[in-house]
Amino acid sequence: MAIPQTFIQELLNRVDVVDVVGRYVQLKKGGVNLMGLCPFHGEKSPSFSVSPTKQFYHCFGCGANGNAIGFLMEHAGMSFIEAVKDLAQQTGLQIPEDDASPQDRERAAQQRQKQTTLNSVLDNAAHAYIQQLKAAPRAVSYLKGRGLTGRIAKTFGLGYAPEGWRSLAGVFADYTDPLLVESGLVIEHADEKGADGETKRYDRFRDRIVFPIRNVKGECIGFGGRVLDKGEPKYLNSPETPVFSKGRELYGLFEARTPIRVAGYALVTEGYMDVVALAQLGFANAVATLGTACTPDHVQKLFRFTDAVVFSFDGDGAGRRAARKALDAALPLATDTRSVKFLFLPAEHDPDSFIRANGSEAFAQAVKAAVPLSRFLIDAAAADCELSSAEGRARMASQARPLWSALPDGALKRQLIGELAEGCGLTSNDLLQLWQHAAGAAPRSRRGASADVQPDAAPPGYENHRGNGPAHYPEDEAFVQTTTPSGQGSAKPTRKWQKDWRKNPPPPRMLGQRLTGGSRADRAIGLLLANAEAWDRLSADDHTMLARLPEPHGPVFAWLEAQLHEHGPQPWAALREALRESEHETFVCAQVEQATAGANPKLELAELADVMDRLRGDVLEALAGLLAARAQGGDAFAYEEFKRVNEQIKARTKALKNSR
Ligand SMILES: [Zn+2]
């Protein structure tokens, strides 16, 4: 979605950074500015200031600073678009969406309205539950019995849903309001009538401690409920609603944002009681999944706040199984700059009982000594394998394949192939070859020669992890055909693929995080648009490479090439005009703004050369990764190409070393 720069400006003029920050941080007047405790580094006395005149926040302790949009991105983990939408909604401004039809816009507005209404219904219920807790000594003594203070109960907004079928009738004027059902608070049996001839309706949460589940904005989106004694089920959650999705939300994330930054890692536990108990015991950086296995969405969400995640599991069989699912969810996101660890507590303990028995220090030590993802991956590959026998090692080789394939390309993945091979009693090459043969013997069913390759047909480990949509490999069609047993033109599949590949190598989609996350390609856009004459100094191969980068970068370079082709080299001001109203406008302007801050053309061109060189390296690495995956998929040619590209990479590395 393209949001014009003018709109962003108007939005920033309209919102007050004091209100935006004030939603998350308690601010007090301190001279012309407002002061509060910094949410980014955690502190006892305030060094975080918000300037109403400059519309800026700044922390004198850690240096964090920015405007209202930046604050929402940094602190609430929103994307740029989410932050803009959030602020637009608050100010009542309409985001100009060029591509949206009036109907789409209307629908989106209705959906937002519905969500706001549901949030406020749930907020009302949360307040009522808190009041009811005060009047329920049995519930209070249960919480005290679990070692919780009133302060922690207040932080998490814990409440109590009383006994009785229709307690909420005392909270909401109209108990038959469909919103109560839609928000998941009330259960309705549409085809059953009660004694009064009315449809049967009753409260979902009855005689339970309720834990409000909040989104990162702090809005209540659902509840978890725990029985006080023996009842069943022990834990009950709100159903999926327009505002609540278990596969995406994490309990406690709203409360844990600052503690996660302070501790430097997020601790993922199994339940809301763990989160609250851990906060009580000094580990406020804990969150929990909501009665579901950990999903890649969960992991992705956490990585917006930290680069280090520790999963904590009870030491029983269920804990082991949950850990294995978390491993699967985390593997595709385990890039080289991130740390993922697994903490297994002794069988008789959960985090709460462990800390009470052994102390906080012992728990902190256990977190430090948690099993790194690489170790756990190797363990999972070797699970139930008798490694002293050839059969056991062979089994490990087969179990290791999907795990290893799911990792994003990088140093970790490359090292692990060696370690896994060693465990299997093979060389790395043997193992890759074995996987390749195994795949050849039992070709996995692939979809037909459709240009739109579905995620299950993407090479293992190379799915599109960033978006929710399927990965697209339109230019890989030739390859897909060769691996389709009944594909067209499969008489000499390898040769066709070979030919097409040479003509049209697979796109470097999988530069993945490193590039689409910003950095090099962003920089290249900024530098090239600010110094458009430099475009002609790049080779045709470079032009092709840039135009093929994943979105959003590739299409911008393609646009630039078309512009320069048509009008010749142009200064940035002219390109800026040409960009107006284009889908790339906001993104490109942001990159150029960064590139030209304190610009020195000579230095910029030198930097461009460096950036281009690194991009070429990235592309080679991505290609090698893609080919390795293809090799596993049973393509001998890909295997040969992999070796060739690998040689190039080695030569490059050597040349780089020598030049330094
Ligand atoms: Zn700070």
Report on the architecture of this protein.
The protein has 660 residues and is an alpha+beta fold. It contains 28 helices and 16 strands. A hairpin with a 5-residue loop joins strand 7 (186-193) and strand 8 (199-203). Residues 38, 40-41, 48, 59, 61-62, 64 line the site of zinc ion.
Give the tags:
five-stranded antiparallel beta sheet, 660 residues, binds zinc ion, 16 strands, alpha+beta, five-stranded mixed beta sheet, 51% helix
Biggest sheet character: 5 strands, antiparallel
Q: Rg, please? A: 28 Å
| SS strand fraction | 5-15%
Number of strands: 16
Layout of helices and strands:
Blueprint: H1 5-14, H2 17-22, E1 28-30, E2 33-36, E3 48-51, E4 56-59, E5 65-66, H3 68-76, H4 80-91, H5 102-134, H6 137-145, H7 150-155, E6 159-161, H8 178-182, E7 186-193, E8 199-203, E9 208-214, E10 220-227, E11 235-237, H9 253-263, E12 266-269, H10 272-280, E13 286-288, H11 296-302, E14 308-313, H12 317-330, E15 339-344, H13 351-358, H14 360-368, E16 371-372, H15 373-382, H16 390-406, H17 411-424, H18 428-441, H19 477-483, H20 493-503, H21 512-516, H22 519-530, H23 540-547, H24 553-567, H25 572-579, H26 585-596, H27 601-632, H28 636-659
Parallel strand pairs: 12-13, 12-14, 14-15
Antiparallel strand pairs: 1-2, 2-3, 3-4, 4-5, 6-9, 7-8, 9-10, 10-11, 15-16
Helix pairs in contact: 3-4, 11-12, 13-14, 15-16, 15-17, 16-17, 17-18, 18-27, 19-20, 22-24, 22-26, 22-27, 23-24, 27-28
The protein binds zinc ion (ZN).
